[in-house]
Amino acid sequence: MPKLRKEKILKGLPASPGISIGTPFHYVHETLNVSREVIEDHEIEFEIEKYHRSLEKSRKLILEDKKKTIRNSGKDAAKIFEAHLLILDDKVIIDEAITIISNQNVQASYAVSKVMKDYQTAFENLQNEYFSQRAFDVEDVCRRVISNIIAEEKNEEHDTTVLSGKKIIVTKKLFPSDTLNFDKDHILGFITETGGSTSHAAIMARALAVPAIVGVQGAVKWIDDTSLLILDGYTGKVIINPTPSTFELYKKKQHEEEKQYKEDLSIAKLPSETLDHEKINISCNIQTGEEIESVLKWSGEGIGLFRTEFLFESSLSILSEKEQFDIYDQVSKDIFPNNVIIRLLDIGGDKLQDKLRIKEDNPFLGVRGIRLLFDHPDILRAHLRAILRASHRKNIWIIIPFVTDIYEVKRIKGIIGRVKNELIAEGHNIDRKIKIGIMLEIPSVVMIVDHIAPLVDFFSIGTNDLTQYTLAADRGNERVSHIFDSLHPAMIQLIKKSIDSANKHNKYISICGQMAAYPIAIPLLLGLGLRNFSVTPFLVPVVKKIIRRELIPDCEKIAEQCLKSGNGRKINKILSDFFTNTIGERMIH
Ligand code: PEP
Ligand code: MG
Fold first, then answer.
1. Taking CB atoms and a 6 Å cutoff, what residues make up the pocket around ligand 1?
2. Which ligand is nearest to the CA of 495?
3. pLDDT value, residue 588
4. Active site (annotated) includes residue 512
5. CB 173 within 8 A of CB 145
6. SS3 510
7. In the predicted structure, residue 3 carries a pLDDT above the cut 60
8. Options 3.90.550.10, 3.50.30.10, 3.30.420.40, 1.10.10.10; which CATH number does 8-27+161-246 get?
9. Could you tell me which CATH class the domain 308-434 is placed in?
């Protein structure tokens, strides 16, 4: 039981889900003491050599960390270290450091720290999330180089941090290399003062599957070594010295979490069908190849949506054809014999603005998705070549994002056809009949879906964007979140129209937006005729559990009722009542 000290709650951004209860380990970065020392002219050569030796040593250590990460967390998490190798080999940085050593007659460690500080100042002045992440990476690499120079001078090796018992790591900032400094079995979670939910620390925490909260201001000051901590990775709450009742509450939550986890694992293995034996496909949405492990763990039947833009986001530059091919080929291999629907880069809107330097007043209505790919034929060509080359197992389908018009479909099909011919002429073994589908996420295209159906092989409804564009409510804006309702009657009509049309033309159709995993919406979607769902991997058991309690005729009745209503609130009420009165009850028994 906790000591009776005053409970204090700090708030941060939830970065990796889960609940941890434990004591802290304050992780303080070793202060790299690099004062400026003037050296003699004849020592310059020696310092430059020392710098080169440290670069070599750092390269070896980064490669070791990369291997360790691949082993523990998969290839995608290890990409961070590929980025670090690029920084380490950056000619501009190396030349700058050498110029400082020789022009200012200073020792190597000082020169590297000077370069690091200059970069930080330059990036910080840009006040941009992407660039501050880059400054962070430069700092991580430079710290490594400096500590290797110092270690050579002192003739000593670096130690890794030894944790006694299981601890919650508390620190101002966490570098990707730091996360490897700890033995995973001793980490209960991470609390950092800096970083966003997309920061590398957050990515690493998720990859290690430990709860984490980032951006917790004052964490280091308020948490002392004797504090008892509760880390709630779902809400972003850090509770310091919880009262006995809070402690009990979270102990219970933790216990339920463990129970739920075990139950979910057993549900995941059950067949995905309704009570009246209608087979329903539940596939998964992924952003990185690394998530395949999760898909397999939760028994997802293939990948219903591979959001490729995230691969580009976690890399320093636009990925080459070869880099992309390796990823798509691996995903296709890992998920075989199931299918993977690869979405062409959906850049724009709020995604990857920085990398292509697009500045628009209204990016969600601007050059996004397929529009942007048409504007960047080189990126599109390399992207298509990589996907098509990986299609040799015939389990890859291509889906086009942000389609508004039939001409876009014709144009992209023409381009895909030309790239296919080019690859065939080069002797590549590709899927000549690769399936091409479109996202239904803009109302205009749903209204003409009957005209487009003969041109495509399948559809996937992106309810996140379809809701945003139908209701003119920004999906990321808290102030209009009460308007953003995927159960709005207009949405239900659009979904019905899409499913009916796909069925009429005998085309596969799925929903890959969040709505597919929204419990009260599942009976409605089944009643509207949906048979393919694509959801986040760990939600497969939740969706399956509901589906396994449904009877199609009941769902059809409830869908009919909803279709007759013009009132979103009423629809929400009809579906909640249906869920509690029927499914809820069936779920208890
Ligand atoms: C959607 O819009 O519903 C969708 C699945 O795509 P994204 O969330 O990536 O825009
Ligand atoms: Mg979308």
1. 305, 307, 346, 441, 462-465, 512-513
2. 1
3. 45
4. yes
5. no
6. strand
7. no
8. 3.50.30.10
9. alpha beta
Rg (CA), the chain: 27
Ligand lying closest to the C-alpha of residue 403: 2
For the entire predicted model, the pTM comes to: 0.69
C-alpha dihedral sign at 422, 424, 425, 426: positive
Residue having the nearest C-alpha atom to atom 3 of ligand 1: 462
> Quick one: which atom of ligand 1 is closest to the CA of 514?
3
The CATH architecture of the domain made up of 41-154 is Orthogonal Bundle (1.10)
Ligand nearest to the CA of 306: 1
What does the alpha-carbon distance between residue 142 and residue 134 come to, in Å, rounded to a whole number? Answer: 12
Specify the fold of 441-589.
Answer: TIM Barrel (3.20.20)
Q: Are 554 and 523 in contact (CB under 8 A)?
A: yes
Tens-digit pLDDT profile for residues 284-303: 999 888 789 889 999 999 99
Confidence of residue 1 (pLDDT cuts 50, 70, 90): very low
Q: Is 200 a catalytic residue?
A: yes
Beta bridge partners of residue 283, listed in sequence order = 534
Phi, psi of 38 (to 5 degrees): -80, 135
Do domains 308-434 and 441-589 share one topology? The answer is yes
**Which segments of 127-227 does DSSP mark as H helices, in order?**
129-154, 176-179, 200-208, 219-222
Ligand 2 center to 94 CA (angstroms): 41
Pocket test for ligand 1, best of 285, 307, 474, 539 (most atoms within 8 A of CB): 307
329-371 pLDDT per residue, tens:
999 999 999 999 999 999 866 555 555 656 788 888 998 999 9
Q: Could you say which of 142, 383, 488, 512 is catalytic?
A: 512
Testing ligand 1's pocket by substitution, the residue of 465, 467, 469, 474 carrying the most ligand atoms inside 8 A of its CB is 465
Q: Where are the domains of the chain?
A: 8-27+161-246, 41-154, 308-434, 441-589
